[in-house]
Design a protein that fits this description.
alpha/beta; TIM Barrel; binds zinc ion; 530 residues; 2 domains; 9-stranded mixed β-sheet
């Protein structure tokens, strides 16, 4: 009689491929799915009765920012409880390595709590960072990208400069080191300092290195507002010229003048896919985004890094100039945001402002909105984050329902109860099923699961995850289709979703009957070339 470490019996398997559901048992040996089928004659160390429940591959979050927070909360509760078994970090141009004397101080400034927790940053190179991540006991698998902003700051600092040929070669070497160590690709954050100072040519040169290793070029594009389509063309051009696969991160049309453009962006992507290029995107199922408060300021204010930005903001003539520019071009790179659309998510020094809009805070302080922003940034050392209500549901539906769009939360591992983070940190994956499958009916369940499993796995080259198949790693989520729902809201975000019954990571049960078991079977995943 066959014997398994774990058998999941009687579930309805949605296998991640997009195929229709079927009834089957799943037998796990060690960290691997050994059999899928009728296992009624078998015995097992542990049996999960999945009668009436859906059994799917664990969700893969292709766009995540837990690069350092996973060191602070290695149980990754807010992700594991959503059924997420793998996160991809290093997005938006920002990874915690490579560090050199040019960017280490700024890194320590921005990662105050990591420094407090670890005492010293135990890595400099990307390879050393991966080794630290490998050693860390964690509940979730982690795959990494190397951030272009970090690579650029390691060589050039945070100024608006072009690299010399020698400096560009140094950057290429750093990207190559990261790829060799096991990064899955390179990310840019073209609205952030210093990634934004790169021209298209610079990124193509670096993406060529990524292409040699079969990696992905993931991009937070230069403009997600009225110039969205130009940005999509730039992203695809980088892929076409370098040979790297392109992942457009958190596809959206932000700010009222840009609304309606997501379907146009998708039409451009489809066109290139039809011509044989590997281009796709990801999105999260919400009409608000979230970023650092400083990202709203014009780029000339942010040039040189956070310390220089704070210095400038102390100059009243700078405040005047920002106010004039916002009046002319709107807040945040022509997005024409209103200050009422921008809400503080996390402030170290102003807990009383968390959940309040800049408009309301400005009124309360008796200051102009820009002066209020400057005050909060000064007090927080630039580390304030915001939620921005800037999208329309029609565009979100376009993105979420499109077959080339995977689901990425754009969130990070959180300390329970801290701040008012975007609800996507707790609800993204269950919400795709609750709202876009069950409520709005713009997606089938197998298709929704495919977007959260095999689609991102295939994009990254995670060849042994993202499907329920013999030989694949046993990353599995078991949920109740009828009750699965996100419960996190903008006003009350620290709430785990409903309906997630079991989460299995590398064969170990991390969520058992809806409760985190505390087990830490997560692995660092390194890109392997075949
Ligand atoms: Zn981003």
């Amino acid at each position: 009689m066959p014997h398994y470490d774990l058998v999941i019996r009687n579930g309805i398997v949605v296998d991640g491929s997009g195929a229709p559901p079927f009834r089957a048992d799943i037998g796990v040996v060690g960290d691997t799915i050994a059999r899928v089928g009728d296992l009624s004659g078998s015995t097992a160390e542990k049996v999960i009765d999945a009668s009436g429940l859906v059994v799917a591959p664990g969700f893969i979050d292709i766009h995540n920012h837990s690069d350092t927070s996973v060191f602070l909360v290695p149980t990754a509760d807010n992700y594991v409880m959503q059924g997420v078994t793998t996160i991809v970090v290093g997005n938006c141009g920002d990874s915690p390595a490579p560090l050199t004397e040019r960017n280490i101080d700024a890194f320590k400034d921005s990662e105050k709590r990591l420094v407090e927790a670890l005492g010293e940053i135990p890595w400099r190179t990307f390879s050393e960072y991966l080794n630290a991540l490998d050693k860390l006991e964690k509940s979730i698998n982690v795959a990494t990208l190397v951030g272009h902003g970090t690579v650029r700051s390691a060589v050039l600092g945070f100024e608006n400069v072009k690299p010399s040929a020698r400096e560009l070669n140094e950057m290429k070497t750093l990207v190559e080191e990261a790829m060799k160590a096991g990064a899955f690709g390179l990310s840019t954050g073209l609205i952030y300092v210093p990634s934004m100072f790169a021209d298209t040519r610079e990124i193509i040169e670096l993406a060529k290195v990524v292409a040699r290793y079969g990696g992905v070029y993931a991009t937070h594009m230069r403009n997600e507002g009225v110039k969205l389509l130009d940005s999509v063309i730039e992203a695809i051009t980088i892929g076409v010229e370098s040979g790297a696969a392109v992942e457009i991160s958190h596809l959206k049309a932000s700010g009222i003048p840009a609304w309606g453009n997501v379907s146009r962006a998708l039409a451009i992507i489809e066109d290139y896919v039809a011509r044989g290029y590997d281009v796709s995107a990801d999105a999260y199922p919400y009409t608000a985004s979230s970023t650092s408060l400083s990202a709203l300021l014009p780029s000339w204010v942010r040039e040189g890094g956070v310390r220089k930005m704070l210095e400038r903001l102390r100059d009243p003539s700078v405040i005047d100039r920002i106010e004039r520019e916002f009046e002319e071009h709107g807040v945040m790179e022509e997005r024409y945001l209103l200050w009422s659309q921008v809400v503080i998510a996390y402030s170290e020094t102003h807990k009383e402002f968390e959940g309040m809009s800049i408009a309301d805070i400005a009124e309360k302080l008796g200051l102009s909105p820009v002066k209020a922003v400057a005050r909060i940034l000064e007090d927080d050392g630039g580390r304030t984050t915001v939620v921005i209500h800037s999208m329309t549901e029609e565009d979100v539906i376009e993105a979420i329902s499109h077959p080339l769009v995977a689901i990425g939360s754009d969130g990070s591992v959180k300390r329970f109860g801290e701040g008012k983070p975007h609800p996507r940190n707790y609800g993204t994956f269950p919400r795709v099923i609750a709202r876009y499958v069950k409520e709005l009916k713009v997606l089938s369940l197998p298709e929704a699961v495919r977007k959260m499993t095999s689609l991102p796995a295939r994009k990254l080259g995670l060849w042994d995850r993202g499907l329920i198949r013999p030989g694949f790693k046993a990353d599995i989520v078991v949920f109740n289709y009828y009750t699965i729902a996100d419960t996190a809201t903008y006003t009350n975000p620290h709430q785990f979703p409903k309906g997630i019954r079991y989460v299995i990571v590398n064969g170990s049960v991390v969520v058992d009957s809806g409760m985190h078991t505390g087990l830490k079977p997560g692995k660092l995943l390194r890109k392997v070339m075949y």
